[in-house]
Amino acid sequence: MLKNSFQKVKEKTPLVHCITNYVTVNDCANSLLACGGAPIMADDIGEVEEITSICNSLCINIGTLNERTIRSMLAAGKKANELGHPVVLDPVGAGASSLRTSTTFDLIKNIEFSVIRGNISEIKTVAQGAGTTKGVDADASDAVTGENLEDTIAFAKILSEKTKSVIAITGAIDIVADSQKAYVISNGNALMSKVSGTGCMLSAMIAAFSGANPTEILDATAAAVCFMGLCGELAYDKLMETVGGTSSYRTYLIDFMSQVTPEILAGGAKIESR
Predict the structure, then answer these.
(1) Taking the complete model, does pTM exceed 0.90, yes or no?
(2) Nearest-5° angle of CA 122, CA 127, CA 130?
(3) What pLDDT does 211 receive?
């Protein structure tokens, strides 16, 4: 499953329209290019529908919201739905402000999302209508652990049924679920949380994997999550061979996105189904 999903990204080079935040936009573009996709970033209302029309998928990231881009997100999402393109939502910081929270729900109300990806606090906000975050990071009290894993899997399946979206909860333990099936993924390294934009990059890559595998969204999302985590592990191993820090780690992370093959992904994935 993982090898096939990634191989299709390499073969099809899906074009991903990203309406994302200006903090991490360059890393999102480079990560898409590295994994085998292609990025295009457009957020003006005058062109978002046209750009969406030529792409294979759409990624909406609310990390740096403003009234202008909210209109563009809604227009692009509706156009992608009209065309049957996969749409990914990254509700960055949902729960941290009323604007982020209300925009998240307005987007979910008006757009059919293929995947909603966030940390556990953001996903709880999506489910409950309110939540707590540490800025754009998960609240430590929400962390997914071995003790609450089964309950969190059940929660993700219920939310998937409610939203009709694949739910991807990422953190130390990752969960990717639809209403019937869940994957638990243990790839990754703690240093990834010290590099701004790793979640944004992952959401963009989920859009690429989904664009290349539009009829297999659950498996494509799981493959993207495994891919990102494996690259994080390999980058950390490389970092230990040098005297670098988090900036070097970011570089190595993107380097391995361009070096990992479908075969390496299949061999290195730490994934189980529930």
Answers:
(1) yes
(2) 65
(3) 98
Type of residue found at 212: A
217-239 and 2-12 helices, crossing angle to 10°: 90
- Quote the crossing angle between the two packed helices 217-239 and 246-259, to the nearest 10°: 130
Domain regions of the chain by residue span: 2-273
Distance CA 163, CA 116 (A): 9
The one-letter code for the residue type at 18 is C
Q: Strand pairing of 174-177 and 166-169?
A: antiparallel
Mean pLDDT, the chain, rounded, equals: 94
Among 205, 192, 201, 202, CA closest to 249: 192
List CB contacts of 150: < 8 A, sequence separation 6 or more: none
* Tokens at 7, concatenated: 């191989």
**CATH for the stretch 2-273:** 3.40.1190.20
For the chain, the 3-state helix, strand and coil shares in percent, each to the nearest 5, are 55, 15, 30
CB-count exposure of residue 180 (10 Å: 0-12, 13-18, 19+): exposed
Residue environment code for 79-113, b if the CB has 16+ CB neighbours within 10 A, otherwise e: bbbeeebbbbbbbbbbbbeeebbebbeebbeebeb
H/E element holding 8?
helix 2-12
* C-alpha to C-alpha distance for 14 and 184, rounded to whole angstroms: 26
| Collapsed DSSP state (helix, strand, coil) of residue 91 | coil
pLDDT in tens, 97-150: 999 999 999 999 999 999 999 999 999 999 987 555 555 555 555 677 778 899
- State whether residue 5 is helix, strand or coil: helix
If phi > 0 it is left, if psi is from -120 to 50 it is alpha, else beta; for residue 257 that is alpha
Q: Can you give the pLDDT at residue 147? A: 82
